[in-house]
Amino acid sequence: MKTLLRALPVVLSALVLAAHFFRSRNLPLVALSLCLPFLLLVGRRWSARAVQAGLVLGALEWVRTLAFFAGQRMEVGRPWGRLAVILGVVAALTALSAIAVRVPRERRGPVVEPGPEPAR
Q: Which residues fall within 8 angstroms of residue 60, CB to CB, at 6 or more apart?
């Protein structure tokens, strides 16, 4: 249950990112966003770091989107404060979901334990 709760923010962030990229018809990034949570099943250090990097990049995409749409609204004199709050919260939650990713400890020493010496 604890693992499921830890993965939930990652899955939700990835789904929202996939929906964002789908809206702009960027299907390769939709697929990448949808595959991101499945990397957690690998259970290796590199996969956890890849998920964290993907979530941080996703948060940066939300900030870029915020700047773009807020700029457009400012140019035409429309209100933009609510948009900034909503996208700012989405960006923050996406970045914070990277913290929920548990990075496995690095193994020290040989991967395979040496067995007993053969009898002579």
A: 91
